[in-house]
Amino acid sequence: MPTCCASGCKSRHSRGKKLFSLPQGKDNAARQEVWLQRIGRTDLDPVSSRLCEDHFTADQFEPILLRKFGTKKFKRDAAPTIFSQEHLQTSGKPIALKNWRMFRPSSLFSASPIITSQPCTDLKHVVLHIGVVHCFTLQALKALSLGFWHAFLLLKNCNAPVRIVNASSSVDACLPKCHVTEMMVFFSLSLSFLGHTATDSAPSDFPEDAPSSSECDALPACSTACSAGSSSSSWDADQAVVAALHKRIATLEECLNNMKRKVATLQQQKSRANRRNHELTRNIKKYLSPDQLQGMWTSSMRGKQ
């Protein structure tokens, strides 16, 4: 199965990505050289290599075909421009979604807490393993809550610095080095899923050092401020999306009204033409001589035979 030839890109045709061949022929030798330089690989075979659509911006395709039919056809001078590390890390399919039915809650979380003093450089590993729980039974919810608690312990003992986007410096300073407060919120929510209120203690099968209800409720004030900031930003984004949708709906309604007016006009023209044709047929003797009428009658009879 063909795959993308760019370094670090895991896109392939089987995952729904469109792959393009490199420019071929003498006329495209200059373009091929530009492509090879931007891809940055010297071991490529220009004939068999393919490059996926993620490395091209929208202005590299024919706009009319892309807008009306969704067909991605290159312009004559199209060339790849997107090769950032951030793109390459997110271009692949999430690992946890590939074989999520193979995981079971009992195999995801061990009985002993996960405590480490090493800086956690990738928190996606913890989140992905928690997200593959696919059975919302009581046992699965207990395992999910236990996994949140283990992730909380992992973050609590982490010394890695964390940069919070769209947050003020004061909020950033009062937060822990990892998002411990967010994990406490997740842990409290998982307790509520199991039928425990905020005043109840942790389940009996949880570790002895699990946080109490007071610890879950006593979140720092900076967490509230941070969540308020994120909520306001998400609210602004939602408002922008809703406004764009309303604008699009108004445009479509206007187009629909224009089409209705055109259809009504065409129907009126058709009715007038039919009435005119009927009048001409009925009063044809006023406009033609008897010989012409006889000729028309003879030709019409021959056509019917």
Automatic annotation (TrEMBL):
Highest taxon, organism lineage: Eukaryota
Molecular function per GO: DNA binding; zinc ion binding
Domain THAP-type: from-to ranges: 1-83
Transmembrane region(s): none
Keyword Zinc among record annotations: yes
Presence of keyword Coiled coil: yes
InterPro entries linked: THAP_domain_protein, THAP_Znf
Residues forming coiled coils: 242-283
Pfam families registered for this protein in UniProt: THAP
Keywords carried by this UniProt record: Coiled coil, DNA-binding, Metal-binding, Zinc, Zinc-finger
SMART domains cross-referenced by the UniProt entry: THAP
Protein name as catalogued: THAP-type domain-containing protein
Species of provenance: Rhipicephalus microplus (Cattle tick)
